[in-house]
Design brief:
about 20% strand; D-Maltodextrin-Binding Protein, domain 2
Length: about 290
């Protein structure tokens, strides 16, 4: 799901298959294949001297602008603070890149997973792994699974909802191209079609101006939205997205997956999530 706070994903890192020239394969002849046919590589095969990155010896990471908490702090991806920034630098470190070797560029959310060449090695922007997107881009091992959240203005009927069925007659706003739209249609099944807006700022404005009764975003974004962008709003509750809402990362598919697997096994990924996400995302569960 693309967060409203970021004009998103899905902390996701991705790279179009058509842009393979940007990142060459880093595997060796001895790489093995798993049951699904994907190649497994060791981090030993994924060093900076073996990876053909956009700029030799540099790792170019993209995200949208502005970049909001809890994904980034102070609208500055380079400071290593915030969930996405911390994950990106952790991946870079696992691949053998120094902090000073990481270059940040701006990439709007909707163009990040579009087909065609890219001016980055991977993108961190809360981009959810979906079957449709996977036809155009490559995703790594998931590094975060997000739930969806309902945000409404305090004192409104929608704010009193204790179950998804209570929102059946509500006017719900979502951002175009996000998995939140699919989640609303599949889980809430409102009596009227969700109102779809082009940007996250448009969705926020619609809620503030009471053009919609509620909006649906991923859980971390909901807590930032109510804390900063719409303090008169409240996080009504959270619910599971159909099939889960997994965010993935990609540099060269197997190398980034190897880096994420290593971070997961060491416990560092869980520590990053606890620092920047877990303590900020407690909300009632809507069923």
């Amino acid at each position: 799901m693309r967060g409203l706070a970021v004009s998103k994903l899905r902390i996701i890192l991705l790279l179009p298959l058509a842009a393979a020239a940007l990142i060459a394969g880093c595997g060796s002849d001895d790489d093995s294949e798993d049951s699904e046919g994907s190649v497994s590589v060791s981090l030993e095969d994924c060093t900076p001297d073996q990876l053909e990155t956009l700029e030799p010896g540099k790792l170019t990471v993209a995200t949208d602008s502005p970049a909001f908490p809890p994904y980034f702090e102070d609208d500055d991806p380079t400071n290593g603070e915030g969930f996405e920034s911390a994950v990106a630098y952790a991946i870079a470190d696992e691949l053998g890149f120094e902090e000073g070797d990481v270059e940040w560029v701006v990439e709007p959310f909707n163009s990040s997973y579009a087909p065609g060449p890219k001016d980055f090695d991977f993108d961190v922007n809360q981009i959810s792994i979906t079957e449709k997107r996977a036809q155009q881009v490559d995703f790594s091992t998931p590094y975060y699974t997000a739930k969806q959240a309902v945000v409404a203005l305090k004192g409104s009927d929608a704010a009193d909802a204790t179950a998804l069925s209570d929102l059946a007659d509500a006017s719900i706003g979502v951002q175009i191209g996000t998995t939140s739209l699919e989640a609303v249609e599949a889980s809430i099944q409102p009596s009227e079609d969700p109102r779809v807006f082009d940007t996250s700022n448009d969705v926020v404005s619609a809620l503030k101006q009471e053009q919609v009764d509620a909006v649906v975003v991923d859980v971390p974004t909901a807590f930032f939205l109510t804390a900063v962008q719409v303090p008169e709003g409240t996080t009504v509750g959270q619910f599971e997205a159909p099939g889960g809402d997994e965010w993935g990362a990609l540099l060269e598919k197997d190398c980034v997956s190897a880096a994420i697997d290593s971070l997961s096994e060491s416990g560092e990924l869980a520590e990053i999530e606890q620092t920047w996400i877990a303590d900020k995302t407690d909300a009632p569960v809507l069923e």
